[in-house]
Each structure stands twice: as structure tokens, then as C-alpha cells.
Amino acid sequence: MAADGKGNPVSEAPHDSNHTRMTVAEAARVLHISEGAVRKRVQRGTLEHERTASGHLVVYIDSAATSETGRERARDGSYEDRIERYLRGLEDRVEDLRNELDREREADREKKRINAALEKRIAELEGSQAAAVAPESGELQPPAIDSNDVAVVQFIITAGASIAAAAVLVVSVLNAQVVLSGLAGGLTLLSIGSFLLHRWLFRSRTDRSQRRPPVSRIEAPVSPQGKGRQDDRQVVKKKLSLPLSLLLELLVVLALVFGFIRPFVIEAFWIPSGSMIPTLEIGDRVLVNKFIYRFTEPERGDIIVFRSVDNTDEDLIKRVVGIPGDTIAEKNGTLYVNGKPQKESYTNKNLPDRSSFAKTTIPENHVFTMGDNRANSADSRYFGPLPEKNIEGEAFLRFWPPDRIGPL
After folding, report:
1. How far is Cα 301 from Cα 344, in angstroms, rounded to an integer?
2. How many Cα atoms within 13 Å fall on the side-chain side of residue 193?
3. N or C: less crowded end of the chain, CB within 10 Å?
4. Domain harbouring 61, CATH code
């Protein structure tokens, strides 16, 4: 056997008369395969073939396969096989669909049975609860009062009492009612304590009611997705423990006290020097009304706390002896206001003052301050009239030491 120019074998032997000579395309139609499959058979040597003078490939196939009867038989057999395979596939698909439909019907019947059982159980529970609550005589009974509702009402009442006590305290301080201010302050502390106590009781009862075991009932199965959502809700409902919650509320109250009341309402001061003896001794502690001068002007005789003119970081406490427009003078320890000598029973008689200074007219928005211990006090005689913007508030109550508690 020889080979052509492309390396394909070409038979030199005479061909059998039982073989039919045909092209690759004709062989593919007869054998019901692709032209590429025909060429592969040629390369493997399973088909007789040769090259024509023009270079075309021709193959030789058994004449029985190429006859009209053989072609029809081969074509019919192959078509029947395909039809049979297709029908078998359809039958299998129909059987699968029937099985799936049966499974869905069974699942639907199971869901209906579960729902019916749930409804029956719920009806039984509601009937048992109604029988336990309703008396046998059939008389109507008033609804029971929930302890949680009582705690809520008490909580609201104490909160309102705290706000009312704080309002009374502010009004009494504004009106310079010292006794009423003390009572209002005590009432405010008592109301805040009661508020926190009822808040603790309310939280305790809420926690106990949440720990109470729920009524048993049949529950439907939960899908994995539903279980995840239920876990998320449980995480959201989780809250702080009771001690931590009370501590947080106490911190909020302290923040309100020191963040609002102390800077703007009332602040305690300690007396470090003897410039106000005998009215204030060293170590005394006083309460200062820090908002009264937002509504009124300083008056003669007021004891005020103010920022030092020379050092704004230092607070001083002195008595107002002159207001804007007054003419102030001192001669041999006697104070003259608008030309009239002043009778000052609050000055230190054990250490009399013999100093003098010329007349001074107090300008607008300024006051003249002096200490009650005139002989040992650095006041407006040294740094001049005090600007009213430096005034922080009026000292109205000495609360320490206990044996000296009283208004100023």
C-alpha cells in the first residue's frame, strides 16, 4: 500500500466489486456518522480509500450497506432506536413528575394535620384558661390589677414628684426663700431616691415576669431561616443587668447634677481665708446661687463669689457695699456711701480697720466689694470696682460645719 502526498495510505490493490466507491460526504450519510469520523476511520485504516488525481479522498464501503434496501434498513433502524430512546425518556420524566406531585400532596396533607392540631390545642388552652378565670356562678369579676402596671404608675408618680421638687427648689432660690430652699432641696433628694427605688422595683418585677415559664403549647417546626431570625430577635431583646442599669442611671443623674446644676444653678464653695471673719470662718462651706443675677441686679449687703480681676482662675468671696452710681469713700475705718456713714454690724470688731481712701464713683455694670474683716482683706480698695461679668453668684447658705448651719 502506497501513501499519498499528505501521508494517507492509498490502496494499490484492485478493489472488490462488492465495495462501492464514494466520497467522504456520501460515506458519512450512509454510515450515519460525521465526515470527521469518516476521516478518522481512514487514518486508522479501517476504511479502504484512495486519492484521486485531483487530490480528493474517496472511500470504499460494502455494497450491501450502500444499496437502497440496506440504506433504508440502516436509516430505519437508527431512527427507530432514537424514537425508542426518546419515548423511554418521556416515560421516565412523566414518572418523576408523578412522584413529585405525590410528595407535594402528602406534604400538604401533613401541614393541614399540623394546623388542625395546633388550632385544637389553642382552643383547649383558651377554654381551660377561661374556665379557671371565670367563677362557676357566672358572675362578672373585676379584672385583676397587674403588678407591673402598678409599678409603672408608681414610677411615673415618683418621676413627676422629682421634677416638681426641683421646680420648687429653683423658685425658692429665685425668691431668696432660704428655709423653703432647704426644704425643697431635701425634698428633691428624697424624690430622686424614691424615683431610683421605684425604678429598681419596676425593673425587678419586669425581670421576674420575663423569667416566668410560658404556657405549654404545640409549636410548628421552624425552618433554619426562621430559627436564625428568632435568634436575632432574642439578641435584640437582651438588656443590661439590674445593678449595671441602676449604676448607669445614677451616672446619668450625677452627670445632670454636675453638668447642669453645678455650673448653672447651685454650687458649693469652701472658704480658704479669713477675709470674711466673723461672717465666714476659715473652712466654712457655703452654697452659692449661680443664676439669681441673671434675673436681678446685685444689691448692697449681698455676699458674692466672683472671679479675681488679677487671676481669673481664682475665686474670691466678698460683700457688696456699693452698686453702680454710688460714691464710695472711707475715713479712719468708717465707710461712707453717697456721703452717709454706714452702720456695719457684720465687720470684725476684734481687728478694727483704720484705713481711708478718697471718694470713688462706681461706673455702670460694676460693684464695689469689701471683706467683713476690713483690716485683712484684699478687695475693691486694691483692685478697684468689680465688673459684674466676673460675678459667679450669691452665697446664701452656710451648710458646714453643722453647728454653724444657717442663712447668710
Report:
1. 10
2. 6
3. N
4. 1.10.1660
Residue range 117-164, pLDDT digits in tens: 999 999 888 888 777 655 544 444 555 555 566 666 766 777 777 777
Do residues 159 and 258 both lie within one domain? yes
105 φ, ψ to 5°? -65, -40
> Which residue in the block uniquely carries the three cell numbers 406534604?
107
Contact between 258 and 140 under an 8 Å Cβ cutoff? The reply is: no
C-alpha cell at 260: 447642669
Q: Same domain, yes or no, for 296 and 209?
A: no
Q: Which residues are catalytic?
A: 275, 318
Assess contact for 205 and 151: CB atoms under 8 A. yes
pLDDT tens digits, one per residue of 240-276:
565 666 666 666 666 665 555 656 678 889 999 999 9
Q: Count the neighbouring beta carbons within 10 Å of the beta carbon of residue 234.
A: 9
> Can you say whether the dihedral through the CA atoms of 210, 213, 215, 219 is positive or negative?
positive
The answer on 260 and 271 residing in a single domain is no
Both 305 and 399 in a single domain?
Answer: yes
Is 77 contained in some domain?
no
Return d(Cα 171, Cα 313) in angstroms, integer. Answer: 30
> With bands split at pLDDT 50, 70 and 90, how would you rate the model's confidence at 40?
confident
Domain residues for the domain of 355 are 267-407
For residue 383, give the CATH number of its domain: 2.10.109.10
Between the alpha carbon of residue 98 and those of residues 94, 102, 266, 374, the distances in Å are 6, 6, 86, 112
Tell me the pTM: 0.44
Residue 84 main-chain phi, psi, to 5 deg: -65, -45
Q: Indicate if the pLDDT at residue 194 is higher than 90.
A: no
More confident residue, 1 or 197: 197
Q: Which of 47, 66, 85 is the last residue of a domain?
A: 66
SS3 304: strand
Domain identity same for 59 and 29? yes
369-400, pLDDT tens digit by residue? 999 999 999 999 999 999 999 999 999 999 99
**Same domain membership, residue 275 and residue 204:** no
